Amino acid sequence: MALTALLSVSDKTGILEFAQGLHALGCKLLSTGGTAKLLMDNGLPVTEVAEHTGFPEMMDGRVKTLHPKIHGGLLARSDVPEHVAAMQKHGITRIDILAVNLYPFEATVAKEGCTLEDAIENIDIGGPAMVRSAAKNWKDVAVLTDAAQYAQVLAELKAGGLQATTRFQLSIAAFNRIAQYDAAISNYLSSVQGDGSLAEYPGQMNSSFIKVQDLRYGENSHQTAALYRDLYPAPGSLVTGKQLQGKELSYNNIADADAAWECVKSFEAPACVIIKHANPCGVAVAATPAEAYSKAFKTDPTSAFGGIIAFNRPVDGAAAELVAKQFVEVLMAPAFTAEALAVFKSKVNVRLLQIELPAGGDTPWLQGRNAQDVKRVGSGLLVQTADNHFLKREDLKVVTTLKPTEQQLDDLMFAWNVAQYVKSNAIVFCGGGMTLGVGAGQMSRVDSTKIAAIKAANASLSLQGSAVASDAFFPFRDGLDVLADAGASCVIQPGGSMRDEEVIAAANERGIAMVFTGVRHFRH
């Protein structure tokens, strides 16, 4: 008995070729509206759904497939005699294959100027109903919701028939698609305000993520873990990376790799970032990747052992030779030359990640970044806009008698950029396009300052004339005094303390130039 396929798609990608393949296999084709016209115009014999059901399409297309001859054909079980008898009694034809993709609700509401009326008219009713019917009855019906599925289904049909495992996987994909679609509708509608504007945060938040892989364990070996990605991951984000070699990435590897990648892609000049336990322990810019790595490594050679390293330029042989001298967990870059790959060929455990760098716009580093940050709390979520603030030099406010030089401004901007990626309380000493000492994650800002100075001393790096960034204001002058004692010549900080005048006076007294940013970068 010939198979019957119902094709009704909003996105016509690949549907003609799929229909031609089905027709060549002897399938009877049913279709609706624009899909039917496309197939007919290309010479395929198609029965329109209205003719099949004997009931006309009506209400501007809102009602066309909501009919027993459609849903009976999709839901009837071939192994239940009563179902078969009901089909025969009511003249219902079995539908063996259903290809449906839904009205483009997500694309519609993403358009600037989309009205509530536009959104409502792009909520598909008949499509999801058919998809649910077919997916529920997967043992008898193959349901396709993505053009990427057409080729496999045709190949299996040509080989003798669809595998049960394929039909089940198609069913899962179909229910996933319906869940994603309904989540998008819920998110949008629960954001609509009385005046028609959209709230920044919806009344109900529904998220869809796709599992990339199970991980060996979580932060600790007694914890389980998995990596998921956004439904539509942005180019330039970590999950779009391709692992070229090495062991599977662990939970901690991925978390640290993300921190390294977000930091390194924020620099326009060739840069290298070394991350250890979620904090930069060395960051530098230079003319070449090799030079940038050498400078970054000098900041804290001890902590760099077993670190995560990221470049914002292709890794060449020279850079690879330097990195390969040390123990490294993960090395990531936009590309690796053949010479670089050859260097690491014998180091089979080193994980090499190739990630496309985002491009375009005035701030390309913002491309591929999350718009929101989410933190799990007991039975709830904390949701905020991501810290994607881009500081421009003209935003700086000089607050001391001594003005910073152009070179000092360069160093301050570099230091401020690094501080954004250091856990609070964060203090970063920099100079000459590299970090000199990093103090991270302390309860006291003074302690972070002291630790940064100790790190520099351990690496035999001088802090004389250095530039310092503090991710938040100095509540007292003691932090500023420690910086001055260490050799700092200029400071960048948010300002906003009740004792700003006291801290400014201390900077003037110690001969330090200081600028305020007006924003802070807490990172917890």
Automatic annotation (TrEMBL):
Q: Which protein is depicted?
A: Bifunctional purine biosynthesis protein PurH
Nucleotide-binding among the record's keywords? no
Q: Cross-referenced SMART domains, in alphabetical order?
A: AICARFT_IMPCHas, MGS
Q: NCBIfam families, alphabetically?
A: PRK00881.1, purH
| Pathway recorded for this protein | Purine metabolism; IMP biosynthesis via de novo pathway; 5-formamido-1-(5-phospho-D-ribosyl)imidazole-4-carboxamide from 5-amino-1-(5-phospho-D-ribosyl)imidazole-4-carboxamide (10-formyl THF route): step 1/1; Purine metabolism; IMP biosynthesis via de novo pathway; IMP from 5-formamido-1-(5-phospho-D-ribosyl)imidazole-4-carboxamide: step 1/1
Sorted alphabetically, the Gene Ontology cellular component annotations on this record are:
cytosol
One BP term from GO:
'de novo' IMP biosynthetic process
Q: What is known of its domains?
A: The IMP cyclohydrolase activity resides in the N-terminal region.
Q: What is the lineage of its organism?
A: Bacteria, Pseudomonadati, Pseudomonadota, Betaproteobacteria, Burkholderiales
